[in-house]
Amino acid sequence: DKEGSIPYPVFSNQLQPHKKIVFTFSPLSLTVPQNTNVYRLTQKAIPKTYQLPDSSHTPQTDQEVIAIVKTVLEKNNTWTSPLQNGKHEIQYLSLTGEQLSYTSSFANASLFLTKLTPKLDSWEIIGNDPTQALVTVYLSKDGAILEFIDSRGKVIDASKSEPHLLKQLEEAKNDLLLQKGTLMAISSAATQFYIDSPMISPGEIDSLLVQKVLLVHYVDLFSDVLAPVYVFQGSVTYEGNPFTVSVYVPALKESEYTTSSLTQQYSSWISKRVPYKQGSLFSITYSENLNQFTVTAPSGKSEEAKQAALQWFKDQGADDPEKQLNIYFFTTKSQ
Hints:
17% of the residues lie in helices and 40% in strands. It is an alpha+beta fold.
């Protein structure tokens, strides 16, 4: 097979790398093309802090709020076409005492929470939490910028792209069932602006009903690409508070990824499917510390068990298990 040219995505914020989650699905609908463009990131870093204007003017409309933010980005040379063509959202916050709450009225707002989500080819560009915009700005009622958060990392080279084959939705759902997804974010879904409550631990999520799916670009700073990913989302409740759980699944067909980067994923995927036992023939366990699978079989059936175990690893997606995985074969004395 021809080796692909795209590095397999490196998810920098995965919450539970070896946790098996049982997924079920509500009816999902998504139009998926046969291929998509993959864009590269440049080496130009987006500044973490911005030079902010000394003066401000009081905005009268949503458009003027966006214009204030755009001016800051333009002066720092980071207002790009994906931002221009992206989603611009403003939420109004009212301050009563020390308590912030959402309000539907521009006139009653004490603060403006501005969220900018860049887009390329109509796909949103996201980071480690799809519920959070990559650019978030807090402005006071008089137009002064109180906080400016830009999580884009690097500038995108939107002038160059390569078409690559996409998995269709059913393929991505199957990958999710095979534990090829990465739990990336558990986000508060509360309608209040601020809740003071404990966050649910990733280890407490054993099952998830998927109610929504997105197809987006993920900013993969490790591989310097915009990685196409499916984002599967469901809801959980913890101590009476709602949360949105987001699991990422790479969206390109596996033939599009480089062999070396894909091989690194096999242990992560297959480790979520053990311990496994095939009758009395063999059992398989995994040590995360050693990154090692142990196949245990009775001595009288060691060769038969080895071949059956290798076939099981192949069924999980490893083309050449003995080369792609660290497997230790252990035989027990027959009773």
